[in-house]
Amino acid sequence: MKAWVSLFFIVLYVWLSLLLGVYFLYMYIVPLGSNAKGYFPLLIYSLIKLLMAGGVFVLWLSTWYYVTKRFFEKKRKRR
Amino acid sequence: MLEILHVLFFCFLLILQFFLSNKLFQRYIERVKRRKIVGLDVHKTGKPEVAEVGGVPLIISYILGLIFLCAIYPSEIPKSFTLIAVAITAAVIGLIDDLSVLGGREKPLLATLCALPLLFSPVFVPRVRLPFIGYTRLFIVYPLLLLPIFSVGANAVNQLDVLNGLMPSASLIILFSLMVSKLILGGVADSLLFLPIIVALLVYLRYNWFPSKIFGGDTGSLATGAILTGLAVINKVEFQFLIAFIPFIMNGFYIISSSGFKEKSKVRRPTFLTNEGKISVSKDRDIPMTLVSLVVSDTPLFEPQIVKRIDSLILFSSALGVLSIFL
């Protein structure tokens, strides 16, 4: 497959995984601490949620990066 | 009847903006070349000299368009002035970088300042529209996230401004998709807010397209990135923007993850010019991975060919962004 064409699949993968990520984030992570009241409990819950979402985000980015990197190296070596 | 007259008069003013900007760019290129404010076009044989800091006439043209919009639609004054403040902040950071190169860490940090005019503006509503969910209430997290969002938006555009015509053509595709998204969501008056930057970028594209007569510099690319981000946030099309922006984010992410936070000029060139004038990927082991080097990783290509391929990728991601509205 041409390198340029494979980029379309990477974009498609990012789009689909973002949609799935948003769905699960809002269904399972966002409801955490929904009964909390007051500014500080809300802020702490928000930060915890942000950290959790950030962790998943980093994991997602690193898999995406390594797949592309391997593909790129393979193409370069083949030339 | 009055509404149609308003739209017609605004269209006339946009045409006026186009011609005035065209004249402005012509004069600017002559003056800048006379004063030797030039850069080398490294992707051409002979490395010709090209006028630099084209972001200045681009921003002037954009502000002119927004003033025309405010004259016809006074209700858009708060949004227009917020966008002017965002654009000027980004342009000043870019101008500092163009005159005395900022470090790879300072630039993203300074770019967060572009979010401040929006954070303190009444037009900022911290509610993001997400697929499956609809409008969310992110009153604490969203204002905090706005700072890195602006930094990523401005710097990602800056990092992809490497080939003739790539930055304006790619930004135009994203802007059109965001405008269509806004029209589908029902904000006809608000979608007019996209037109001044579209006209300014069209004029800039005329002079930046292969073979380039002017380079935008960091002034142009940082300001365009900040304006794109600001328009997406103000018009509540953040998710559509994120999807359309994927190729830009991919490029920025690949560069940062393979070579760290280094200034563009200090990063090893991942490509080189062949004798035929094509761009090919470098054989060095430690080169950074970029979108351009990925496109040419299996075959060398001419500069306009690469631009067209990356543009088609952005067209694809923009279409996915518009599609996300229906989810």
Report on this model:
- The complex is a heterodimer of chains A (79) and B (327).
- Chain A is built from two helices and no strands.
- Chain A is mainly alpha-helical and 79 residues long.
- The mean pLDDT of chain A is 81.
- With 327 residues, chain B is mainly alpha-helical.
- Chain B has one domain.
- Helices cover 63% and strands 5% of the residues of chain B.
- Chain B contains 14 helices and six strands.
- Chain B has helices at residues 2-34, 55-72, 77-99, 106-111, 116-119, 141-159, 166-185, 188-191, 195-208, 217-234, 238-244, 246-259, 291-295, 303-323, and strands at residues 38-40, 49-51, 129-130, 134-135, 271-273, 279-281.
- In chain B, the strands form three sheets. Chain B has a two-stranded antiparallel ribbon. A two-stranded antiparallel sheet of chain B has the order 3-4.
- In chain B, a hairpin with a 3-residue loop joins strand 3 and strand 4 (134-135).
- The longest helix of chain B has 33 residues, at 2-34.
- The model of chain B has no long low-confidence stretch (mean pLDDT 91).
- The chains are: A mainly alpha (79), B mainly alpha (327).
- The A-B interface holds A 2-4, 7-8, 10-12, 14-15, 18-19, 22-23, 26, 30, 42-43, 46, 49-50, 61, 65, 68-69, 72, 75-76, 78-79 and B 130-133, 136, 140-141, 144, 239, 242-243, 246-247, 250, 253-254, 257-258, 281, 283, 289, 291, 293-299, 309, 313, 316-317, 320, 324, 327.
